[in-house]
Amino acid sequence: MAFVSDETCVFPKSFDQKGTEISSEKGAAMQTGRVLDESDEIKHNLLIKFGLKQLVGQDPKFCEALVKVRQIAACDAPVLLQGETGTGKELFARAIHYLSLRSSKPFMPVNCANIPVELFENELFGHVKGAFTGATARQEGIIQAAAEGTLFLDEIDSILPLVQAKLLRFLEEKEFKVLGLNRLEKADVRIVAAARSDLRKKIQEGAFRDDLFYRLNVVSLFIPPLRERINDIPLLAEHFLQKYSTQMSKPVTGFDSDVLSLLTRYHWPGNIRELENAVYHAVAVCQTPTIQFRDLNLPHIHAAESKPPVQFFKEAKAEAIASFERQFITNLLIEHRGNISRAAHKHRRAFWELMKKYGIQPQALLS
Does residue 189 form part of some domain? Predict the structure, then answer.
């Protein structure tokens, strides 16, 4: 029934409310200023496991977002997550849920873009037997399934205005209408929504309701793209390497230094999801203890990019010198109408060598 989002990214360290890394889960067993008893500590550790422990990074922008997650989790207002595809919006939504007072209730992730327009209302609110042709039994909607928990609506910018209006009513009144029923139903559900496009721009284009935007945007969180978290790339790559080498029981222990250099220079249009997939593939095909450039499956990277920056500098310098020398010799020959002796002046030998090096023919320049 529900269309589960496939947003995948992993963000391995735990942090306290100030964003300071927690040294151990034992040391993290504090909640709202009180020491937890054994059962509470077990519960707390589970929340860390499904919440903050899934978020890996040390970049200042990332840590700023991480601190805000705890603040957002402490309230019960609707949340709007904004960021590019593959940045890990669902994991942030999960962290918000598992660190909130709703943590023992369901977390329902739904990718709105995957639900056909004509079925969206039915998926969201459900139906009773006989509500329409083919409705042979009652079907619970996503909102009912998420009762007292959190409903994560990913790619909410893809839903049409008609459905937006009904979602707005639910946000305002906590009421909804099951298809085929004449009465209104109620459900206590926290909404966390995510958009990959600029909703303000969508409002200007008439594609998104401004009143729904304001109801969703009570609390907002921007998740930075991976290209703005360059220092986290090696950390994330090592995390995925450990994850998949363990999963596949392969003795792959690290990355070739040139590969790590390349990973930090790549622009990652698919963000963390693309990085995870790249490492997954590399571990699967790797035949050595360390991942080499040949193990990566990144079609946008040319083979030349596998070289380290020093090699790029040397090649660029050599190319610039060659271009200058070729143009300089050509201009002199043209100026002196192909007369090599006049063009070379006192450096005839070097002049001849450069002409030979670049295959310059004086006659061709005058034709």
Answer: yes
Backbone angles phi, psi at 164, to 5 degrees: -60, -40
DSSP lists the bridge partners of residue 255 as: 291
Q: Which H helix or E strand runs over 192?
A: strand 190-195
| 271 and 197 co-located in one domain | no
Q: Model-level pTM greater than 0.85? A: no
CA–CA distance, 112 with 125 (Å, rounded to integer): 14
Nearest alpha carbon to residue 4 among 79, 84, 89, 114: 114
Structure tokens at 153: 């609506």
Positive or negative, the CA dihedral 289, 294, 298, 302 is positive
Same domain flag for 235 and 335? no
- Note whether residue 23 is domain-resident: no
The model's pLDDT over 244-299, given as tens digits with 9 standing for 90+, comes to: 999 999 999 999 888 988 899 888 999 999 999 999 999 999 999 999 988 988 76
CB 358, CB 325: distance < 8 Å: yes
Task: Compute the distance between CA of residue 200 and CA of residue 180 in angstroms, rounded to an integer.
Answer: 35
